[in-house]
Write a structure and sequence with these properties.
The complex is a heterodimer of chains A (119) and B (304).
Chain A lengths: L2 H26 L4 E2 H10 L12 H10 L3 E6 L7 E6 L1 H25 L5
Antiparallel strand pairs in A: 1-3, 2-3
Chain B lengths: L7 H11 L5 H21 L5 H13 L1 H19 L12 H6 L5 H34 L5 H27 L16 H10 L1 H45 L22 H34 L5
Helix pairs in contact in B: 1-2, 1-4, 2-3, 6-7, 6-9, 6-10, 7-9, 7-10, 9-10
The chains are: A mainly alpha (119), B mainly alpha (304).
């Protein structure tokens, strides 16, 4: 089996899903999170072979922020450049609810053919 | 393929290399994010050396090539989503529509607003820089002279970042969204030395100074164009209204020379006014673009 097929498939899937996961993480978090914290939370939940590289999280965070789904503020840090903390906006929550619905529908649809195809 | 980076500086250098040719502002953001992650990762593993942490980075954060690809892809997707392709009158094959299509281009209005605003921002920038430089020079013999100078350079950088954000809002051209962070973890004095050697520090000050004369010029062009254009369009109507018995208390509805409002000439007067306003809108759009080129050259670190 060619490894690159799997990687390409995973990359295509991640294109939209990373944004959905990030909205989910930030909506569950009581406090604002910065890029590194979010990346670590995802890594912890994602033992073994990671589904996506943590470096891909940052540009998506910025894109969500540019679209008004997240707000951010900058806090100085001792360990490096100032950190950008993100928080989900009301619009972001609305989009998350919307996208979760689409995700569930998509997942169930795909499962009908891939998992439970013996019905 | 680069060899695996062994230090944060090396990683950032490789990332910069891979991103070569991309938008300078995107590169600045990508380097900033990578550094935040790498430094936080090193700080949370104090027992490991920087080289050991970096060894695992390709499997967690991603190799420079992967990270670069992620930024390129996301940027392209976001731009496509934020700026849907609408058939623009400015791209119509009909030259007349293209010429007047500028009135349906929101960027032209924003640029015109920017031209008016530059007088204000130009005065502020100029005052800050002149005050900062002369106070730095004057206080140089005192102990607070140097810290004052550093604070002043910091303020100048914030102003430069703000100007970039303003230009991005107006023209839609990508400008840096994060401040530049010096790459290496170096001592305070080395950092100050780097800053003094960095040509961007001085070109930033030059840009801020330059914005006063440039701002005055933009303001004068915009105000002159708007007033002459609007006057030529409105004048004949006001004179006509007066002929129809409309009473202006202060009698301002006099057009000099009066022939401009004469019935046969009036349509040409109005057309001239429309022409002037249209040319002004084109000029505004062009100036907005030119200003971005200037700001990129002087405010954004070259080669980044």
């Amino acid at each position: 089996m060619d490894e690159s097929h799997a990687r390409k498939f995973q990359k295509d899937l991640n294109a939209g899903l990373v944004a959905l996961v990030l909205l989910g993480v930030l909506s569950r978090s009581a406090e604002d999170l910065y890029g590194y914290e979010i990346a670590k939370q995802l890594q912890k939940a994602n033992e073994g072979e990671p589904l996506f590289k943590e470096g891909t999280v940052y540009p998506v965070l910025r894109a969500l922020s540019a679209n008004g789904l997240l707000t951010s503020r900058i806090v100085p840090s001792y360990s490096g450049p100032p950190r950008r903390y993100y928080r989900i906006t009301a619009e972001g929550r609305a989009v998350l609810a919307d996208w979760s619905g689409i995700w569930r529908q998509t997942r169930d649809f795909v499962d009908r053919f891939v998992e439970g195809g013996d019905e | 393929m680069n060899r695996a980076p062994r230090s944060i500086d090396e990683y950032l250098r490789q990332l910069r290399e891979v991103l070569q040719g991309a938008d300078p502002a995107l590169i600045q953001d990508a380097l900033y994010d990578a550094e935040e992650y790498l430094r936080a990762e090193c700080a949370s593993h104090p027992e490991k050396s920087e080289a050991d942490v970096l060894e695992l980075i390709a499997s967690t954060y991603g190799a420079p090539e992967e990270v670069a690809a992620a930024y390129r892809d996301t940027e392209a997707k976001v731009n496509a989503a934020l700026r849907p392709v609408i058939p623009r009158a400015t791209e119509s094959p009909n030259p007349l529509r293209r010429f007047f299509g500028v009135f349906s281009d929101s960027r032209a209005y924003l640029s015109l607003f920017y031209m008016l605003l530059t007088l204000v921002t130009g005065i502020i920038y100029f005052t800050v820089v002149v005050t900062g430089l002369s106070l730095s020079a004057g206080l140089a013999i005192l102990i607070i002279g140097f810290p004052f100078f550093l604070a002043f350079i910091g303020i100048a950088r914030v102003l430069a970042l703000g100007e970039g954000r303003l230009l991005e809002a107006i023209t839609g051209e990508r400008m840096p969204r994060r401040p530049v962070h010096p790459g290496a973890r170096i001592g305070f004095w080395t950092r100050v030395g780097e800053m003094l050697k960095d040509p961007r520090t001085w070109t930033t000050l030059a840009y801020l100074l330059l914005m006063l004369p440039v701002g005055i010029f933009y303001f004068v062009v915009a105000i002159t164009g708007i007033s002459i254009g609007v006057a030529l369009i409105a004048g004949p109507f006001l004179v006509m209204a007066q002929h129809l018995g409309w009473d202006f208390n202060d009698g301002i509805s006099v057009m000099q020379p009066a022939v401009l409002a004469a019935p046969l000439i009036a349509p040409f007067t109005i057309a001239l006014g429309v022409l002037i306003l249209t040319l002004l809108m084109h000029a505004a759009r062009g100036i907005g673009r030119a200003q971005v080129v200037l700001a990129r050259a002087l405010l954004v670190k070259p080669g980044m």
